[in-house]
Protein backbone atom coordinates (compact mmCIF):
# COMPACT_ATOMS: atom_id res chain seq x y z
CA UNK A 1 0.00 0.00 0.00
CA UNK A 2 1.35 3.39 -0.98
CA UNK A 3 1.98 6.16 1.47
CA UNK A 4 -0.92 8.04 -0.13
CA UNK A 5 -3.32 5.24 0.72
CA UNK A 6 -1.92 5.11 4.23
CA UNK A 7 -2.67 8.79 4.61
CA UNK A 8 -6.33 8.11 3.87
CA UNK A 9 -6.95 5.67 6.73
CA UNK A 10 -8.96 7.59 9.23
CA UNK A 11 -9.40 8.09 12.95
CA UNK A 12 -12.54 8.71 14.91
CA UNK A 13 -11.59 10.63 18.05
CA UNK A 14 -13.58 10.37 21.25
CA UNK A 15 -13.93 14.12 21.67
CA UNK A 16 -12.11 15.38 18.58
CA UNK A 17 -13.49 15.72 15.02
CA UNK A 18 -13.44 12.57 12.89
CA UNK A 19 -10.55 13.07 10.50
CA UNK A 20 -9.62 11.02 7.46
CA UNK A 21 -6.84 12.84 5.67
CA UNK A 22 -3.40 14.01 6.62
CA UNK A 23 -2.22 10.96 8.60
CA UNK A 24 1.30 9.95 7.73
CA UNK A 25 2.36 6.31 8.19
CA UNK A 26 3.57 5.73 11.72
CA UNK A 27 6.04 3.05 12.68
CA UNK A 28 5.60 3.60 16.41
CA UNK A 29 2.08 3.56 17.82
CA UNK A 30 3.04 5.17 21.13
CA UNK A 31 4.06 8.69 21.95
CA UNK A 32 6.91 8.45 24.40
CA UNK A 33 7.40 12.22 24.63
CA UNK A 34 3.93 12.93 26.04
CA UNK A 35 2.81 11.88 29.49
CA UNK A 36 0.03 9.31 29.33
CA UNK A 37 -2.88 10.33 31.59
CA UNK A 38 -5.73 8.61 29.75
CA UNK A 39 -7.02 5.41 31.41
CA UNK A 40 -7.72 2.36 29.26
CA UNK A 41 -11.22 1.40 28.12
CA UNK A 42 -13.10 -1.81 28.95
CA UNK A 43 -15.68 -2.78 26.34
CA UNK A 44 -18.57 -5.29 25.89
CA UNK A 45 -19.76 -5.37 29.51
CA UNK A 46 -23.51 -5.35 30.08
CA UNK A 47 -25.85 -6.51 32.84
CA UNK A 48 -27.68 -9.74 32.02
CA UNK A 49 -30.24 -12.21 33.35
CA UNK A 50 -29.64 -15.96 32.95
CA UNK A 51 -31.57 -19.09 33.81
CA UNK A 52 -29.77 -21.81 35.78
CA UNK A 53 -29.31 -23.81 32.56
CA UNK A 54 -27.85 -20.81 30.72
CA UNK A 55 -25.57 -19.94 33.65
CA UNK A 56 -23.76 -23.29 33.38
CA UNK A 57 -22.19 -22.20 30.08
CA UNK A 58 -21.79 -18.52 30.94
CA UNK A 59 -18.24 -17.17 30.56
CA UNK A 60 -18.00 -13.71 32.21
CA UNK A 61 -14.87 -12.90 30.14
CA UNK A 62 -16.37 -13.76 26.76
CA UNK A 63 -16.03 -10.87 24.25
CA UNK A 64 -14.76 -8.53 27.02
CA UNK A 65 -11.90 -6.38 25.68
CA UNK A 66 -9.68 -3.54 26.87
CA UNK A 67 -7.77 -0.98 24.82
CA UNK A 68 -5.40 1.83 25.75
CA UNK A 69 -4.42 4.85 23.68
CA UNK A 70 -0.71 4.08 24.24
CA UNK A 71 -0.43 0.41 25.20
CA UNK A 72 -3.00 -0.83 22.69
CA UNK A 73 -4.75 -4.10 23.49
CA UNK A 74 -4.85 -4.81 27.24
CA UNK A 75 -7.48 -7.56 27.11
CA UNK A 76 -5.17 -10.18 28.65
CA UNK A 77 -4.51 -7.91 31.63
CA UNK A 78 -8.15 -7.56 32.66
CA UNK A 79 -8.77 -8.76 36.24
CA UNK A 80 -12.16 -10.04 37.39
CA UNK A 81 -13.39 -9.89 41.00
CA UNK A 82 -16.56 -11.96 41.35
CA UNK A 83 -18.56 -14.11 43.79
CA UNK A 84 -20.59 -15.64 40.94
CA UNK A 85 -22.17 -19.03 41.74
CA UNK A 86 -23.52 -20.46 38.51
CA UNK A 87 -25.62 -23.12 40.24
CA UNK A 88 -27.41 -20.79 42.67
CA UNK A 89 -30.28 -18.39 42.01
CA UNK A 90 -29.42 -14.82 42.97
CA UNK A 91 -27.96 -11.47 41.93
CA UNK A 92 -24.17 -11.19 41.61
CA UNK A 93 -21.78 -8.27 41.18
CA UNK A 94 -18.76 -8.65 38.87
CA UNK A 95 -15.95 -6.07 38.95
CA UNK A 96 -13.64 -5.82 35.90
CA UNK A 97 -10.43 -3.78 36.25
CA UNK A 98 -7.30 -3.07 34.21
CA UNK A 99 -4.29 -0.72 34.39
CA UNK A 100 -1.94 0.50 31.67
CA UNK A 101 1.85 0.90 31.85
CA UNK A 102 1.43 4.43 33.23
CA UNK A 103 -0.68 3.12 36.14
CA UNK A 104 -3.88 4.63 34.76
CA UNK A 105 -6.66 2.37 36.04
CA UNK A 106 -10.20 1.62 34.89
CA UNK A 107 -12.89 -0.52 36.51
CA UNK A 108 -16.43 -1.44 35.48
CA UNK A 109 -19.23 -3.13 37.40
CA UNK A 110 -21.56 -5.73 35.92
CA UNK A 111 -24.67 -7.28 37.50
CA UNK A 112 -25.54 -10.87 36.61
CA UNK A 113 -28.92 -12.19 37.78
CA UNK A 114 -29.56 -15.95 37.81
CA UNK A 115 -33.19 -17.09 37.87
CA UNK A 116 -34.83 -20.55 38.01
CA UNK A 117 -35.36 -22.45 34.77
CA UNK A 118 -38.72 -21.88 33.15
CA UNK A 119 -41.17 -24.75 33.66
CA UNK A 120 -41.87 -26.74 30.48
CA UNK A 121 -45.66 -26.71 29.94
CA UNK A 122 -45.51 -30.13 28.22
CA UNK A 123 -44.29 -31.76 31.46
CA UNK A 124 -47.10 -30.36 33.64
CA UNK A 125 -49.87 -32.92 34.28
CA UNK A 126 -53.39 -31.59 33.64
CA UNK A 127 -55.42 -30.89 36.79
CA UNK A 128 -58.08 -33.48 37.64
CA UNK A 129 -61.46 -32.03 38.59
CA UNK A 130 -62.88 -33.09 41.98
CA UNK A 131 -66.46 -32.55 40.79
CA UNK A 132 -68.38 -35.83 40.22
CA UNK A 133 -69.50 -36.52 36.71
CA UNK A 134 -73.18 -35.94 36.16
CA UNK A 135 -75.19 -39.15 35.62
CA UNK A 136 -77.84 -38.95 32.97
CA UNK A 137 -81.28 -40.04 34.21
CA UNK A 138 -82.79 -42.95 32.39
CA UNK A 139 -85.31 -41.72 29.90
CA UNK A 140 -88.60 -43.60 30.15
CA UNK A 141 -89.59 -45.39 26.97
CA UNK A 142 -93.22 -45.06 25.99
CA UNK A 143 -95.02 -48.33 25.60
CA UNK A 144 -96.69 -49.14 22.35
CA UNK A 145 -100.34 -48.84 23.31
CA UNK A 146 -102.70 -49.27 20.34
CA UNK A 147 -105.58 -47.70 22.23
CA UNK A 148 -103.84 -44.36 22.66
CA UNK A 149 -104.02 -42.15 19.58
CA UNK A 150 -100.77 -40.80 18.28
CA UNK A 151 -100.13 -37.14 18.97
CA UNK A 152 -100.37 -35.03 15.86
CA UNK A 153 -97.84 -32.25 15.60
CA UNK A 154 -99.28 -28.91 14.51
CA UNK A 155 -98.30 -27.80 11.03
CA UNK A 156 -96.50 -24.51 11.04
CA UNK A 157 -98.08 -21.86 8.90
CA UNK A 158 -95.36 -20.20 6.92
CA UNK A 159 -97.75 -17.74 5.28
CA UNK A 160 -97.00 -14.17 6.23
CA UNK A 161 -99.93 -12.04 7.28
CA UNK A 162 -100.39 -8.67 5.79
CA UNK A 163 -99.03 -6.81 8.79
CA UNK A 164 -96.33 -9.29 9.76
CA UNK A 165 -92.88 -8.06 8.72
CA UNK A 166 -90.53 -10.54 7.12
CA UNK A 167 -87.45 -11.40 9.16
CA UNK A 168 -84.21 -10.29 7.57
CA UNK A 169 -81.06 -12.19 8.48
CA UNK A 170 -78.26 -9.97 9.70
CA UNK A 171 -74.84 -10.35 8.13
CA UNK A 172 -72.75 -11.39 11.11
CA UNK A 173 -69.60 -12.14 9.12
CA UNK A 174 -66.62 -10.47 10.83
CA UNK A 175 -65.25 -7.42 9.07
CA UNK A 176 -61.47 -7.68 8.68
CA UNK A 177 -59.55 -4.91 10.39
CA UNK A 178 -57.45 -2.65 8.21
CA UNK A 179 -53.82 -3.64 8.35
CA UNK A 180 -51.50 -1.01 9.74
CA UNK A 181 -48.99 0.25 7.21
CA UNK A 182 -45.41 0.51 8.43
CA UNK A 183 -43.53 3.43 6.96
CA UNK A 184 -40.08 2.40 5.79
CA UNK A 185 -37.35 4.96 6.23
CA UNK A 186 -34.84 5.05 3.40
CA UNK A 187 -31.07 5.52 3.78
CA UNK A 188 -30.75 3.68 7.10
CA UNK A 189 -28.51 1.04 8.71
CA UNK A 190 -30.10 -1.29 11.30
CA UNK A 191 -28.42 -3.73 13.70
CA UNK A 192 -28.77 -4.91 17.31
CA UNK A 193 -32.04 -3.02 17.72
CA UNK A 194 -30.65 0.33 16.50
CA UNK A 195 -31.67 2.09 13.26
CA UNK A 196 -29.24 4.80 12.14
CA UNK A 197 -29.81 7.19 9.19
CA UNK A 198 -26.92 7.86 6.83
CA UNK A 199 -25.96 10.46 4.26
CA UNK A 200 -23.51 10.41 1.37
CA UNK A 201 -20.32 12.24 2.33
CA UNK A 202 -17.66 10.37 0.35
CA UNK A 203 -14.12 11.52 1.07
CA UNK A 204 -15.24 13.93 3.80
CA UNK A 205 -12.68 15.01 6.39
CA UNK A 206 -15.02 14.05 9.22
CA UNK A 207 -18.14 12.00 9.91
CA UNK A 208 -21.52 13.73 10.22
CA UNK A 209 -22.28 15.04 13.70
CA UNK A 210 -25.24 12.64 13.95
CA UNK A 211 -26.14 9.44 12.20
CA UNK A 212 -23.60 7.93 9.81
CA UNK A 213 -22.10 8.70 6.43
CA UNK A 214 -20.64 6.89 3.42
CA UNK A 215 -16.90 7.41 3.07
CA UNK A 216 -16.63 5.23 -0.05
CA UNK A 217 -19.42 3.72 -2.13
CA UNK A 218 -22.99 4.83 -2.74
CA UNK A 219 -24.94 3.03 -0.02
CA UNK A 220 -26.89 1.15 -2.72
CA UNK A 221 -27.58 -2.50 -1.87
CA UNK A 222 -27.74 -3.85 -5.43
CA UNK A 223 -24.88 -2.16 -7.30
CA UNK A 224 -22.40 -5.00 -6.72
CA UNK A 225 -19.92 -2.61 -5.06
CA UNK A 226 -18.83 -2.04 -1.44
CA UNK A 227 -19.79 0.88 0.81
CA UNK A 228 -17.75 2.01 3.83
CA UNK A 229 -19.87 3.73 6.54
CA UNK A 230 -18.40 5.97 9.24
CA UNK A 231 -19.83 7.43 12.47
CA UNK A 232 -18.92 8.73 15.91
CA UNK A 233 -18.38 6.91 19.22
CA UNK A 234 -19.58 8.27 21.60
CA UNK A 235 -22.51 9.01 19.31
CA UNK A 236 -24.97 7.20 17.07
CA UNK A 237 -22.34 4.67 15.92
CA UNK A 238 -21.45 3.52 19.46
CA UNK A 239 -23.46 0.25 19.01
CA UNK A 240 -20.88 -0.82 16.42
CA UNK A 241 -18.70 -1.75 19.42
CA UNK A 242 -21.18 -4.54 20.27
CA UNK A 243 -21.17 -6.15 16.82
CA UNK A 244 -19.64 -9.64 16.60
CA UNK A 245 -19.10 -12.15 13.80
CA UNK A 246 -22.51 -13.36 12.63
CA UNK A 247 -24.39 -10.16 13.51
CA UNK A 248 -26.94 -9.25 10.78
CA UNK A 249 -26.88 -5.67 9.45
CA UNK A 250 -29.79 -4.42 7.31
CA UNK A 251 -29.32 -1.51 4.93
CA UNK A 252 -32.18 0.37 3.24
CA UNK A 253 -30.72 2.47 0.43
CA UNK A 254 -31.97 5.77 -0.89
CA UNK A 255 -34.25 4.02 -3.40
CA UNK A 256 -35.97 1.91 -0.71
CA UNK A 257 -34.17 -1.31 -1.65
CA UNK A 258 -33.34 -3.52 1.35
CA UNK A 259 -30.52 -6.01 1.93
CA UNK A 260 -29.32 -7.82 5.04
CA UNK A 261 -25.57 -8.47 5.34
CA UNK A 262 -23.85 -10.82 7.81
CA UNK A 263 -20.67 -9.79 9.65
CA UNK A 264 -17.70 -12.04 8.80
CA UNK A 265 -14.79 -10.12 10.38
CA UNK A 266 -14.27 -7.67 13.27
CA UNK A 267 -11.03 -5.64 13.28
CA UNK A 268 -9.22 -3.24 15.63
CA UNK A 269 -7.05 -0.97 13.49
CA UNK A 270 -4.50 1.77 14.14
CA UNK A 271 -4.83 5.09 12.29
CA UNK A 272 -2.23 3.96 9.74
CA UNK A 273 -4.26 0.88 8.77
CA UNK A 274 -2.29 -1.75 10.71
CA UNK A 275 -4.14 -4.46 12.61
CA UNK A 276 -3.77 -3.87 16.37
CA UNK A 277 -3.45 -7.60 16.98
CA UNK A 278 -1.09 -8.34 14.05
CA UNK A 279 1.56 -5.76 13.06
CA UNK A 280 2.08 -7.60 9.76
CA UNK A 281 -1.56 -7.25 8.73
CA UNK A 282 -2.32 -4.19 6.57
CA UNK A 283 -6.12 -4.10 6.32
CA UNK A 284 -6.53 -1.47 3.56
CA UNK A 285 -6.88 -3.94 0.68
CA UNK A 286 -9.74 -5.98 2.15
CA UNK A 287 -11.55 -3.03 3.73
CA UNK A 288 -11.36 -0.43 0.93
CA UNK A 289 -9.96 -1.97 -2.29
CA UNK A 290 -11.79 -5.32 -2.37
CA UNK A 291 -14.93 -5.28 -4.54
CA UNK A 292 -18.24 -7.10 -4.41
CA UNK A 293 -21.59 -6.38 -2.79
CA UNK A 294 -20.54 -5.82 0.82
CA UNK A 295 -20.35 -3.15 3.53
CA UNK A 296 -17.96 -2.08 6.29
CA UNK A 297 -18.70 0.03 9.37
CA UNK A 298 -16.12 2.06 11.30
CA UNK A 299 -16.07 3.93 14.61
CA UNK A 300 -13.39 4.80 17.18
CA UNK A 301 -12.13 2.95 20.24
CA UNK A 302 -9.55 5.55 21.27
CA UNK A 303 -7.99 8.55 19.57
CA UNK A 304 -5.64 6.24 17.65
CA UNK A 305 -7.47 2.89 17.46
CA UNK A 306 -10.59 2.18 15.38
CA UNK A 307 -13.17 -0.62 15.28
CA UNK A 308 -14.07 -1.84 11.77
CA UNK A 309 -16.56 -4.61 10.92
CA UNK A 310 -16.90 -6.26 7.50
CA UNK A 311 -20.17 -7.81 6.28
CA UNK A 312 -21.43 -9.36 3.06
UniProtKB/TrEMBL annotation:
Region (Disordered): 116-147
Family matches, as SUPFAM superfamilies: Sortase (SSF63817)
Keyword entries, A-Z: Hydrolase, Signal
Residues of the Pesticidal crystal protein Cry22Aa Ig-like domain: 49-114
Signal peptide: 1-24
Keyword Transport: no
Name the UniProt record assigns to this protein: Pesticidal crystal protein Cry22Aa Ig-like domain-containing protein
Species this protein is from: Enterococcus pallens ATCC BAA-351
Species lineage: Bacteria, Bacillati, Bacillota, Bacilli, Lactobacillales
